[in-house]
Amino acid sequence: MTEREQKKPRLLLHCCCAPDATAVYERLARDYEVICYWYNPNIQPLEEAHKRLAAMRQLAELVGMELIVDESGEAAWAEAVRGLEDEPEGGARCEVCFALRLQKTAQKAKELGCEYFASTLTVSPHKPAAQINPHGEAAAALVGVKFLGEDFRKHDGFKRSVELAKKYGLYRQKYCGCIYSVRR
Questions:
Q1: H or E element, residue 13
Q2: How far is 184 from 182, CA to CA, in rounded Å?
């Protein structure tokens, strides 16, 4: 590692899926020492969670990214969204889900001594940065780390993620992740 690389600030990147992580990691790795963090207790059924995590591990191996996997939290997520099962995609259930995952990421960032945390969620055309970033800011204020509230869709971020996912042969899911989004 060069002296310049050693001076990069550490950033914990919450990765919702491998395709979304591709372009975001590529962009952030220029300026940060990026550690990727898999925490997605919302992904159901279990077979789907395994497919997505396998793709994330595949990406980590292909590009040499550090990946921390946390498969906990399913019961806490289910409790947090109880009563919101019939909410539409992008509604109150998603707000609770974003807040839960970003708060856990902020806590992990602090535990690891990272100065920043961010999420790949905003690279998706289905996840508005204006909906996600306030949850990151709230988690940052609560925990005491900085949130990098970017809209990673900008500058063709989503297009680049599609290109890289194809290049790497990554599994691309067909729904957000929770079982309730499949039913809609």
A1: strand 10-14
A2: 6
Over the Cα atoms of the chain, what is R_g? 15
Average pLDDT over residues 6-13: 92
Q: Is 128 exposed, middle or buried (0-12, 13-18, 19+ CB in 10 A)?
A: middle
Note whether 182 and 175 are within 8 A (CB): yes
Strand 10-14's sheet: what is its strand order?
66-69, 33-38, 10-14, 116-119, 146-147
Reported as type and span, the H/E element at residue 147 is strand 146-147
User: What DSSP character marks residue 149?
Assistant: -
The position carrying tokens 């780390």 is 145
Residue range 84-132, pLDDT digits in tens = 999 998 999 999 999 999 999 999 999 999 999 999 999 999 899 999 9
d(CA 53, CA 160): 21
What domains are there in the chain, each with its CATH number?
3-183 (3.40.50.620)
- Cβ–Cβ under 8 Å, residues 17 and 120: yes
With contact defined as beta carbons under 8 Å apart, do 12 and 35 qualify? yes
